[in-house]
Each structure stands twice: as structure tokens, then as C-alpha cells.
Amino acid sequence: MTRFRALLCIGLVTTFVCTSARIVATSDISKKSLKHGEIRGNLAEALTQLAYSTKTPTIGELAQPLASIHIPEGVHSPEDLVRELARQAPGYKWESRGKVVLFYQEDLERNRLNILNLKFERFTMPNNVSQLKYALPNMETALLDRTSEKGILLTGFGDTELEKDKLKGEVMEGVDGREILVRAASQNPTFSVILVYPKGTLRTTTESKEVEWFWQSFRSELKPMYLKVPEQR
User: Fold this and answer.
1) Tell me, what's the pLDDT at 9?
2) For residue 201, how many other CB atoms are within 10 A of its CB?
3) pTM of the predicted model, to two decimals?
4) Residue 228 has pLDDT above 50, yes or no
5) Within the chain, where are the H helices?
6) What's the confidence (pLDDT) of residue 15?
7) Which of 82, 124, 221, 229 is the most buried (most CB within 10 A)?
8) Count of structural domains within the chain
9) Is 219 within 8 Å of 164 (Cβ atoms)?
């Protein structure tokens, strides 16, 4: 089979606010054609493969069931590949913020229970992407539960590859999770993060909490993605 290839405390004051504001930006995604291998798998796998093989920082907001994708090996630009991915995945759109690709299911992107739509009153960017990987999902859950935390304490070994991706510890106000990820990927465009929800029409906070996060460093080998099998409801 071909392969494409802490102790942490962050201050946080939160307010439960939903936003459905659209991101409008000029695309700086490379239009230069390059040789790439076959892209094949479910939508989450294919989007990760695309980001990894073209070194394009990508944020995905996906929902089960995931479309099956197949793009033969060839010579295409990253922008052409993203367009083809969207063509094979009905209900999905993409846009960009500078060099960062945002790929999302339309209903999910607007859903008030999509955790990336919840606003932080204040958020301090951590020192590296590994810290962000372990902190942000927990902070989003705190927002979803409408709790106000002074800080979140996490312990663990961290991600040794993502630790190399340094971030500026800037303080941001009135930002949602999507904006935080975009700023992190803009500062250090060497990773992708894909969120997979059990469905696009989220109706309960329980469904929102079932989201799966998949982080991939472009510095390391491509990791397999082990998705949960969605329950029949």
C-alpha cells in the first residue's frame, strides 16, 4: 500500500457567544503545478493527504458520513486539488485565509453548536502547536458547557513533532476557535487539523462533544486516521 507520506496552563476568560461570520480573504494558495501521488480514502483521509503532500496548512470541518475520494496521481496545483476534492464531496465548500485552506461542510460551518463557532472573550496563544493541540479542545468544551475557567491545566508527553512548530504568545480578544487555528497555521504553516463530527445537523451539546480532532505535522510521517464508527440514531 502506498503511503503519503506538558505541563501547560493557559489563562482563559470565556463567554458563550456563537458566530456564523463568513471568512472573506484573497487566496494565496499556490497555483504552481507539482507532481503528487494518488489521493484516496474517506474525505478526512483525503484532505489530510492533500495537505500533507502539498504542504498546505489546512483546517477541515467535516461531518459523517464521509464521502469516498479518489484523485489519481498526476501534476496539479494545490488549488486545483482542493477544488477537485470539493467537487467529489457534495455539500462542502472551501475558502482561504492567506495560505491557509478552510474546507467545511456548509450546514456544519453555520451550526451554532459547532465548537469552532464559539467565541473566547480572551485567548492567549500558547508557545507551540503541541500545546495548542492539547489545550484548545478542552477549552472549547468549557465554552460549550458555558463554564468560565481562569485556566486549564494539562499534563502529558505532548507531540514531539508539533512542539517544533513555535507560535507567538499573542493575546487575542473576541476570537472563535476557527480564527485561533487560522492564526496558528498562518504563524507556522507546517500542520493540518481536521475535525470530524458525527453529523452536520448538530442539535445537542452531546453531539458536539463527539467531535474528533486529527492533527498532522508536515515534519513527520503521515499518521493513520482511526475514525469512530458513527452510531445509528
Assistant:
1) 36
2) 12
3) 0.84
4) yes
5) 43-54, 78-88, 106-110, 129-144, 177-187, 205-209
6) 36
7) 82
8) 1
9) yes
- Could you read off the pLDDT of 136-152 as tens digits, one per residue? 999 999 999 886 544 44
Domain extent, residue 164, equals 8-18+31-217
Distances from the Cα of 135 to the Cα of 6, 56, 59, 130, 177, angstroms: 10, 23, 17, 9, 12
Q: What is the pLDDT confidence band of residue 29, given thresholds at 50, 70 and 90? A: confident
Strands (E), the chain: 8-18, 34-36, 39-42, 58-63, 68-71, 74-76, 92-97, 100-105, 118-124, 151-154, 171-176, 191-197, 212-217
Q: Is residue 119 part of a domain?
A: yes
Residues in the chain: 233
Q: Considering the domain boundaries, does residue 80 fall inside one? A: yes
**Domain-embedded: residue 1:** no
Whole-angstrom distance, CA of residue 39 vs CA of residue 46: 6
Residue 25 lies in a domain: no
